Amino acid sequence: MKGIAFKAIAYGLLFVGAGLSLIPFFWMVRSSFMTTTEIFHFPPKLLPETWLWGNFLEIFNVVQFSLYFKNTLFVLIPVIIGTVVTSCMCGYGFARLNFPGRNIWFALIIATMMLPPAVTLIPTFMLWTEIGGINTFWPLVLPSFFGGGGFFIFLMRQFFMSIPKELDEAALIDGANYVQIFVFILLPLVKPAILVVSFFTFTNVWNDFFGPLIYLNDESMFTLALGLLQLQGSYTSDWNLIMAAATVMTVPAILIFFLGQKYFVEGITLTGIKG
Amino acid sequence: MKLEPLKQRLLTKKRMNFSKKEKVFGYLFTLPAILGLLLWTLGPILASLILSFTDYQVISPGINWIGFENYFTIFREDLYFKQSLVVTLYFAIASTAATLAAALCIALLMNMKVKGQGIWRTLYYLPVLVPAVAANILWMWLFNPEFGMLNGILRFFGLPGSMWIYDAATVIPSLVLLSVWGCGGAALIFLAGLQDIPKDQLEAVELDGGNTWHKFRFVTIPTLSPIIFFNLIMGLIGAFQTFNQAYIMTNGGPNNASLFYVYLIYREAFVNSRMGYASALAWILFIVVMIFTLVIFRWGKGWVFYGGAK
């Protein structure tokens, strides 16, 4: 009896909590289908009278949304490639190859995760100004080819460590070299990790607006996040358009999550616990 | 038998080769990360330290060494330093505490063998997936005192509305509410930890006549403590870096009530072009975060049980 009561309360609370977490989201989507008069109506309407799909076309007219989208891909694709390739390499190196100073280098790289990005921001910005990288995608893309940051190197290393070392040794005795072992034997085994890193990288780039904000000046270079800000700044009363743009930006993130949900959750929990 | 020593020697030789090669390849494989560390982290740290002792401003040419002048100015003249530090601390502590409590509650509920765990997990994780800019803009709309949904709901129940982010007294609590909305990530990590709790320990407590509270207090919390600690550290460090909300939603206002520290650094560096001064601010943040982390690690020793509890 007590068990049932407990369960009933649990379900009740879960429902309320889930409702609270979804309502803002629902509000965004329903607002994106409304007219401005409807959106400012009081008392607020739950659903639009007629669903205005045109709002979604309108955002492509008032700002260059398709250009922002293209720019975002120009950053996203190389960053994913750079992060995956180099974090795999480094994860393998730190997990399975012995070389002097390995632990110190690894510890230093992990320690940098504690460093506030604000500390390195100003000199890095000055460096890019100096070498003419402002208003190009280089400052957003190039750093990802250096291991992709402590978090991903750590994550990759964890995955590589979970594979039995006998595999490498057997391959070595059979005459394989380290590159062959890495590419042909280990990489296929860490596919889940590669997916995890790709998903996280996607969300990082998709969400990032600080990098684009300081490095990109021309509107023709803007990414989606900056474009959304731009829209919010210049069409302050067109909340229906702003919400439509926000919805458009949110949908791919959710789609990607659903496609790789299994790996995503695995990655979150793995890094969470082992951290 | 005679061949044995030779074979042995050959094997040793081969192994020697391996290890020499291993060293070379070890460095080759980790080179990107090592270069990255030097180029994007250690180099800039050093440069930022040096810059913090200069008066570098982008507009006026030349860099002058001014010693501790920037630091003196920060502490003595205190243009916005103390205000932003207080705001950041207030937000960091409130939002971390609220987010962790909410995440733990959600995880405990989901762990009660409820049906459709995957669906619940997704529902609670959905807010995390809304990109930061979109989420902040969305909440500006929800917080709108006239047309926003939140005041709409309050009015529906006959309650007085709030000014939310548009009033100095309520801006930080409002932003805490926004961060609680995104607690799904922490909840997932808690849930994974809860599912690792050995059943026999819970049963043992039951056999000894313990109730649900005893189970929670003496099994769940100790087993979960490393994860609570992890979420606490990550939450606090993350909260210290808060920037988006100030830039997108409040511009640090009203009346500097949401002047987050990183926003102040950004403003000094990229709006006022005082790179040297901003570097000094950044270094102070670095030291504050470090001290904070160390203190929490110290404190954590008292209540975090690593494996030993098992």
Quick recap:
Chain A has 275 residues and is an all-alpha fold. Chain A has 15 helices and no strands.
What this model shows, in words?
- The complex is a heterodimer of chains A (275) and B (310).
- By secondary structure, chain A is mostly helical.
- Helix content of chain A is 73%, strand content 0%.
- Chain A has 15 helices and no strands.
- In chain A, α11 (191-207) packs antiparallel against α14 and α11 crosses α15.
- The model of chain A has no long low-confidence stretch (mean pLDDT 88).
- Chain B has 310 residues and is mostly helical.
- In chain B, 73% of the residues lie in helices and 0% in strands.
- Chain B has 13 helices and no strands.
- Chain B has helices spanning 3-51, 69-77, 81-110, 117-129, 132-143, 149-156, 171-181, 184-195, 199-207, 212-240, 244-250, 261-271, 275-300.
- In chain B, α3 (81-110) runs parallel beside α7 (171-181) and α10 (212-240) runs antiparallel to α13.
- Chain B is flat and about 75 Å long.
- The two termini of chain B are 51 Å apart.
- The relative contact order of chain B is 0.12.
- The mean pLDDT of chain B is 88.
- At the A-B interface, α1, α4, α5, α6 and α10 of A face α1, α3, α4, α5 and α6 of B.
Name some characteristics of this structure.
heterodimer; A: 275 residues; globular; B: 310 residues; mainly alpha; 13 helices
In terms of topology, how is this protein built?
The complex is a heterodimer of chains A (275) and B (310).
Chain A: H1 2-31, H2 36-39, H3 54-62, H4 65-96, H5 102-111, H6 117-130, H7 138-141, H8 150-161, H9 166-173, H10 178-186, H11 191-207, H12 210-215, H13 224-234, H14 239-259, H15 261-274
Chain B: H1 3-51, H2 69-77, H3 81-110, H4 117-129, H5 132-143, H6 149-156, H7 171-181, H8 184-195, H9 199-207, H10 212-240, H11 244-250, H12 261-271, H13 275-300
